[in-house]
User: What shape does this take?
Amino acid sequence: MASASRYGEMNRLFNRCGQSGVLLPKVSLGMWHNFGAEDPYERSRAITHYAFDHGITHFDLANNYGPPAGSAEETMGRLMEQDFAPYRDELFISTKAGYLMWDGPYGEWGSRKYLTASLDQSLRRMKLDYVDLFYSHRYDPDTPIEETLQTLVDFVRQGKALYVGISNWPLEPLKAATRYLHERGVPLLIYQGRLNMIDRKPMDEGILAFCRQEGIGFIAYSPLAQGLLTDRYLDGIPSDSRMAKEHFLKSERRTPELLRMLHDLQQEGQAHGRTIAQEALAWILAQEGVTSVLVGVSSVEQLKNNLAVI
Ligand SMILES: NC(=O)c1ccc[n+]([C@@H]2O[C@H](COP(=O)([O-])OP(=O)(O)OC[C@H]3O[C@@H](n4cnc5c(N)ncnc54)[C@H](OP(=O)(O)O)[C@@H]3O)[C@@H](O)[C@H]2O)c1
Assistant: This one.
């Protein structure tokens, strides 16, 4: 049973996604790490419950999240069956395809063949009839964009996705995609890009400004730079941290320059009564055109800390 007070003040919790009818929570939950088959299910369950009980309606997935690939969607499917089915209409669930998912020529990139098979697999794993949002996960320079985009349009026409999004595409193809989708009555809902205090590429390359002008929402992924912009690495590399795995986050990122930045952020945060993570999230949410920050967490405590930014 979800908390009866989960929505509190709607204006505080939600932002309108571009010029669409959709409201998204200012803090959304991403399942790239910490929700796979190798992670404790009860922890995943506790995190998603805490999220939903505090008004986080948006869970973000992709075909390849895990590890192993696909298992985060399976976790979502188990959660749907056990807990969230009665709340399906209160949830906004996204998935994506673009990166390597299976062997052979049809297991990645942007063909109709790959995207269609992938979304069908995602729906089965998540035990859903439809996703709220389907993204092209990356730009495919070798597939005509009309093929990729028409597949997204068709997903909406088929009722497999309610909205479409684009992630990690460069600006020029993004502009072409916006036109193509608009002309077919399936407007681009949202762009998902990496934006944080260290990596400002979507701002530097004009992507955020373009989304703002066109009424497209923008959701910032890795808003804490995978944990770099928190107190996690202030005093070393904890053995249970993402950096300790030396895979997606290498220890060479813990530089003297980063530590100086963290100490400055810590001091600024003390002035505002905020943690480093909250400072980093507040900075993104203050950028005009940002709809939501998409955090990853490995504990309920971290999520609680991050949610305090709103
Ligand atoms: N579209 C794309 O290509 C793309 C790419 C990457 C991510 N994403 C999406 O964005 C989501 C978030 O990405 P991310 O996991 O890199 O996000 P992030 O929020 O930048 O980093 C998450 C990590 O930071 C640490 N952390 C979070 N809150 C903390 C706190 N309050 N105090 C201390 N440490 C804290 C945790 O590290 P530990 O695990 O070490 O505790 C956590 O796993 C993903 O789940 C996915 O949905 C999309």
Remarks:
- The chain has a mean pLDDT of 97.
- The CA atoms of residues 195 and 201 lie 7 Å apart.
- Strands lie at 14-16, 23-25, 27-30, 58-60, 92-97, 131-136, 161-167, 188-194, 217-221, 292-295.
